[in-house]
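User: Fold this one for me? It's Phenylalanine--tRNA ligase alpha subunit.
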Amino acid sequence: MPFEQAGIYMIKEVFYMEEQLKQLEQEALAKIEAAANLKELNDVRVAYLGKKGPITDLLKGMGKLSAEERPKMGALVNTVRENVTAVLETKATVLEEAAIAEKLASESIDVTLPGRAIKVGNRHPLTRVIEEIEDLFVGMGYEIAEGPEVEKDYYNFEALNLPKGHPARDMQDSFYISEEILLRTHTSPVQARTMEAKKGESIRIICPGKVFRRDNDDATHSHQFMQIEGLVIGENIRMSDLKGTLDTLAKKMFGADREIRLRPSFFPFTEPSVEMDISCFKCGGAGCNVCKGTGWIEILGAGMVHPNVLEMAGYDPKKVSGFAFGIGAERIAMLKYGVDDIRHFYTSDTRFLSQFERTEA
Ligand code: 2U9
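Assistant: Here's what I get for Phenylalanine--tRNA ligase alpha subunit.
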C-alpha cells in the first residue's frame, strides 16, 4: 500500500475510533442515567467497561494506529473510561441511598401500635394448692418445715411406729438406695426429725414436699407425688382441735359451706386415726358424678399422734399429745380444678398448665 494511502487510511481509522468512542460514552451515560436499580447499573458497568466490552475492544484495535496516534487515542479511551466510571459511581451512591431509604420506609415502626403482650408464666396448679394451704396454716401460727427426699429407713418408718417387717410397710413400698436409705414415702420423716430436734418443746408445723412410692402409674396413681402433712404437739392437744383445724382447711379449700365427716381408719403413726370426707362441692350432698352418688368426697387422713411415736422422739405421752394429718396435693388439685389424669401435672404441657393462669382460688 503506498504511503499516502496508508496515511489517509490511518486518519480515517482514528476518526472512526474517536467517533465510536464518543458514541459509546453517550450510550453508556444514557444507560447509567436510565438504570433503575443497582443490578441494572451493574449490567451497564459490565457491558461497557467489562473485559468483553466495546471500550476494551477499541483498546485492542489500537494496534492499527500509528505510533503518534496511539498515545492520543489511549489517553482519550482512558478519559472516557474514567468519566463513565465516575458517573457510574455517583449513580451507584444515589441508587444505594434510594434503596436504603426505601427499606427504611417499608420497615418503619408505627409507635402508636399497641405492644405485643409478653407471655408471663403462671404458678403450677400443685404449687398453688400447696401455697394456699401453707398460707392458711402460717396464718394460724404454723411454721413450714422441710427435710431430705432421700431419707433414712429410721425416720421414714421406724420412728413412725413402722418397725422392720411391719405389714403396713407394704403399702408404702419405695425406691431403696441401700438397705437403710430410701426415697421418702411421705413427708412424715420431716415431722419425726423436727420432734427429735425440738427435744420435748411444743410444735406446730406443716411439711410440704415430694414423696415417692413404688407404684404403677395410671390416671390416678403416680410413683412420685406431692404431700402436705401437718403436726401439732403440745399440752392438751385434743381430737376436737384436729377436727376444728380440718374443718377450717376444708372450708378454705372447697368453700365456706362445706361440711366435714370423720370416719375411723388406721395408720400406724396415729391412734385413733380418721379419714376425712367433705360434703360434695358440686351437688352439695345430693349425689353426682364427682362424689359418685354418695354426697361425700374423701380428702385426707389424720389422727392423734401415736404414743409410741411421741416416746421414740423423746416426748412423754403422759404429758403431751398431738395431732397430725396428711394430704395429697394432686388429689386436691384434681378435685378443685376438675383434672381427670394425674399425669397432666408432670408432663409440662403448656396447653394444660396455661389454663390455670386466671383461676384464682
Ligand atoms: C408424725 C406423726 C404422725 C401423718 C398422717 C395421714 C394420716 C394420711 C395420707 C393422705 C393422702 C398420705 O398423701 S397420702 O396418700 N396421709 O392419711 N398422714 S396421719 O401422721 C403423722 C406424721 C408424722 C411424727
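One thing worth pointing out: The two ends are 113 Å apart (CA to CA).
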